[in-house]
Amino acid sequence: MTKKLGVAAIIMVFMVVTIGVAMAEGKGNARKGKYLFRKSCRTCHIEDGSAKDLSPVSKTQADWQIIFDNTSKLQCKEEWEKLSEKDILDIHAHLWGHAFDSPSPAKCK
Amino acid sequence: MTQHKKYVIIVDAAKCIDCKACMVACKVENNVPEGFWRNEINVLGGEDGSLRTEFQPSQCMQCDDPSCVAACPVQATYKKENGIVVIDPEKCIGCGNCVTACPYNARYRNPVKRIADKCDFCEDRLDRGKEPACVVTCPTKTRVFGNLNDPDSLVAQMIKKEKLIRIAAPHINTQPNIYYFEGTQLLDWAVTPMLPGNINMPQNFWKSKSSSKEG
Amino acid sequence: MSATKTQMISRRKFLQLSGALAATTAVTNPYRVLYALTRDKGEITPDEIREVFSACDMCFNKCGLIAHVENDVIKKLDPNPNSLKSRGMLCARGNAGVKQLYDPDRLKYPLLRKGARGDGKWQRLSWDQALDHAAEQLDKIGKEYTRCGFLFMAGTDMQSTFVHQFAEAYGSYNVISHESNCLLSRNRAFLDTYGVMPTPDVLNCKYVIMPGSNRFEALVTPDSMDLMTAKGNKSKLVVLDPRFTKTAALADEWYPIKPGTDMAFFLGIAHVIISEELYDETFIKEKTFGFEELKEHVKQYTPQWAAKETEIPAKDITRIARELASAAPSAMVYPGRRSSDYEDSTQIRRSYAIVNALLGNWDQKGGLQVPKKIKPGSMHIEAPFYEDNPDDRVDAGRAQMMFDEEGSFKHTRDAVIEGKPYPIKGWMTYKTNPMQTGANRDKTIEMINTLDFMMTVDIAMSDTAWMADLVLPAPSYLERQDPLSAFLAASTCSGVITRDPVVPAMFESKPVFWIVKELAKRLDLGEFFDFTVDDFRKAQLKKIPQVAKALKEDGVYNITGPSFGIHKGKPFKTRSKKIEFYNTRYKDKGIDPMPVYKQPKTIPENHFRIVVGRNAYVTQSASTNNSLLWELEKENTLWIHPKPAIAMGIKNGETVFVKSLAGKVTIKARVTKETRPDTVYMDTGFGVLSKGLTNIFGKGACIAQVLEDKADKISGNMAMHETFVTVTKT
Q: A31, B178, C220, C505: which one has the fewest Cβ atoms less than 10 Å from its Cβ?
């Protein structure tokens, strides 16, 4: 039992690391990410919405990275769990890639 | 106490960037036909490839002793009480005497209306409570317009405070009402007026004035 | 019949008249239209006279204006004195706006190409036919080549946002703006130094050094006017320019710097400021990153070294550095606007940004500022995602750090011609004219010839429209309703402006909003355009009712309050959260983290460097055919210095050949000392192919025909000063 858990933990750690590397290299599809961000996040994170209005330029790249590294701590973690790994990479590519200190800050949401 | 107005313009040529806004504004406001202008920007330099260093706007000087008025055979051109020299389109016969009589090259013969034409400080605009088109449109506010007889006007204060000059025409003093700041370098462009009786009209009289002094 | 006797004509009559004129423009003098509009006092009752606010569109500045309208005919455009940004002025182009409206050369109805591209054979279509055809092409190309196989390019216009929205709904992210032919490398450099593109407070500046910019001719409001006001307040202006521009003429000092060496000049300035410790130590410590690296880096760039590169004496470089420092923080290197000059134009602008940081002028009176802005609301569309689309833009990866939402015209054009990484077969342009403004015209033609379909929406038959398959007529800015536009300007004059129709749209012209909405309907994308411009504007104004009130009452909303001292203690939007002398992101990407000077290429023997510029009465190619402005410049000329001209026996006014690797043109020479002996120049916007521009067709030469298409390595901005030409007698 403990052994199994250990293996799972190792796999988990490995997965986080892989996603982390992929994120840093910008492997996600930012175009798809923009669409997914609108569809999945902007339902609430919108002007006069139930959560804080968000766009890529709301945060720095470092701040976005903290969010993506800690999605389980977010209030909307259940929403995050619905997303596939690829979806998260894509959303990351959009938000991180167009963050306010990024080389190409987003003009619109 | 009904003192007459005396409209003048004070030009600070050092501010002129030769952008031609005044020329186009005037042309639209007054329907000046292609090839003609009621105002111009004189340029110091530019001939023989030299550097252009000063840009000096000019237009009808609304002279107190206007040679154009003296030259008109039918009294179509006259000076109004507000100081503006105007042309009565009903009386003007388009003879062109006034055009050559002006030492400042401020008049032209309008080929559409077939009468003389020149700057009238945009009298239509003044009637609507607006300043002349060239004055308001200027990016750097090179021209200041106003009534010299109003001691509170900016022009009256500037006349007192600033060192201003008027551009003298050779052989004649028409008492012009456009003032320039001292230090203006372009002073020699006025010409000797050709008054009636002189049948030697300039060759290019019927042709258009060129839009600029270059080339 | 004298003009004053002419009856006031009705708009209907005017239309007939201008239609008749259009048919015979080649032999009709342009003043005839104005004649037809001659005012007849006494015929008009006061209620037929209107004064209407609008915003000028003769260039990008959006100056406030008041239209004087009599019987639905615009008689005169005057400056709106309420517009703080435009300082209550309207330039020659602004005044000539009536001639953009009442121009017999305007496009009047949809046209379909009948002959070969560029032959000028057209068939008139109804709007329904035209839109059906366009929608069919959009659908076909989208299906065959993916949605990204259709390219969109919209110029600087308040309705361009709708073209972008349409592209998004349609599913193409191949959208380019005009900016990569203009200022992207400047934005790149300042963004990568300050995390933002600041605006210069020229008005309160005591010492302005202006490299290359020509603010008294290439008018930017309020900078152009503020520069003159500052001059009156004894501010000093130093101009570096290979040409003796009118800005140079009115400057305190002019240096005909060797083209392409501006970075050497500013590295030399940085050397003096740092070695003589003329900077504000606290500012450097608190607000900047990488000072020690910069100090070490600029040790090599002495004024003596810079003098050899720039041909500006070392003692002047040293003196200017000291004068700048003593006037600091109200001293600046003017950031300029168009920066499409060299292959390292971003790094050149980095050197300007760095000297500004050494002067500590950030957020200071008379320095570089980021004024408060107002953010209008918006109306976002929830665009669909097309799974078959490629991963990225067609020009992706061709420059080191391209702006995603601007793209690069040069790189996109190359990609379209190569068909790599994927084919693009459709192109829609709106109010932009890359045939004239994009270097290497032959290559633009080559690009167009690879396309299956090209459509252009514009006011007149520009050279770009001339090459299109479908040409759709748009109304001028005086005939349409636009969304709000918020603008930033230093010296406390940011604001918001908008437009409503001053007069009804003429001919069959339709705004681009209506066009994309109609196309969307036909493509089953109607849900993304289920609103009107009015709805859009209401959404923009929702949270800012004060703006709506001001626009109605004053024609402009001005943001008041100081534009400096408002960012104290706030972090910069850079990686280090400071002003970056040293850019670590550059380092990571293999780009020089600090600007390293590279000598411009040596001009080959018997060649000249050709440079691009402007005067105050043309807006590149958009206004040269305007009858009122055309009178001020009927054709362009080649500026050439007397020294080489005499050596080659070229006389003033003589026609010469100008030839480069890109192409060859004929043009009249203007022999003048107003350019360096090694540099030639011509205005943009002549030598057109379009016979629909009747004033300028056959006049002068097209500079895009001789400019080679190099690009700034970092931003992908066009590099237009890297071309060498020969000049020979015809």
A: C505
Domain of C296 in residue numbering reads as 199-367
Does residue B204 sit within a domain?
no
What tokens does C45 get?
């009752």
pLDDT the model gives residue A107: 78
Q: Measured between beta carbons, which residues in chain A are less than 8 angstroms from residue C168?
A: none
Are residues C432 and C154 in contact, defined by beta-carbon separation less than 8 angstroms?
A: yes
pLDDT tens-place string over residues C634-684: 999 999 999 999 999 999 999 999 999 999 999 999 999 999 999 999 999
Q: Is residue C574 within 8 angstroms of chain A, CB to CB?
A: yes
Buried b (16+ CB within 10 A) or exposed e, B171-185: ebebebbbbbbeebe
Q: Is C401 near chain A, with CB under 8 Å?
A: yes
Q: Is residue C145 a part of any domain in this protein?
A: no
Looking at residue C220, which CATH number applies to its domain? Answer: 3.40.228.10
Q: Do C405 and A106 touch (CB under 8 A)?
A: yes
Of B3, B26, B13, give the one whose Cα is nearest residue B123. B26
pTM for the structure as a whole: 0.90
Residue C727, amino acid: V
By three-state DSSP, how is residue C263 classified?
helix
User: Are A and B touching by the rule of 3+ CB pairs within 8 Å?
Assistant: no
Chain A CA closest to residue C386: A32
Helices (H), chain A: 2-24, 30-36, 61-69, 77-81, 85-97
Enumerate the H helices of C24-107 as residue ranges.
31-36, 92-95, 97-101
Q: Residues C90, C27: contact at Cβ < 8 Å?
A: no
pLDDT, residue C437, reads: 95
Range of the domain at B117: 7-181
pLDDT over 80 (residue C516): yes
Nearest Cα neighbor of C674 from C711, C706, C699, C638 is C638
CB proximity list for A104: less than 8 A, separation 6 or greater: A97, A98, C401, C402, C403, C404, C405
Q: What is the pLDDT of residues A50-101, one digit of tens each?
A: 898 899 999 999 899 999 998 888 888 888 889 999 999 999 999 999 998 8
d(CA C416, CA C152): 13
- Give which of B52, B140, B144, B209 to mutate to test C binding, by max C Cβ within 10 Å: B140
Residue C415 inside a domain? The answer is no
Res C25 pLDDT > 50: no
Lowest mean pLDDT across A77-91, B73-87, C207-221, C423-437? A77-91
Q: Residue B127: which CATH number?
A: 3.30.70.20
What is the tens place of the pLDDT at every residue in B43-70? 999 888 899 999 999 999 999 999 999 9
- Candidates C35, C228, C250; nearest CB to B31: C35
> What's the half-sphere exposure (Cβ side, CA atoms, 13 Å) at C122?
24
Number of domains in chain C: 1
Question: What is the tens place of the pLDDT at every residue in C170-187?
Answer: 999 999 999 999 999 999
d(CA C400, CA B9): 56
Examine residue C720 and state whether it is found in any structural domain, yes or no: no
Residues 6 or more apart whose Cβ sits within 8 Å of residue C273: C279, C321, C324, C325, C355, C358, C359
Report the Cα–Cα distance between both ends of chain B, in Å, rounded: 53
- Confidence check: pLDDT of C20 > 60: no
pLDDT at C493: 85
C58 has pLDDT over 60: yes
Q: What Å distances lie between residue C576 and A58, B110, C193, C487, C509, CA to CA?
A: 17, 67, 10, 28, 51
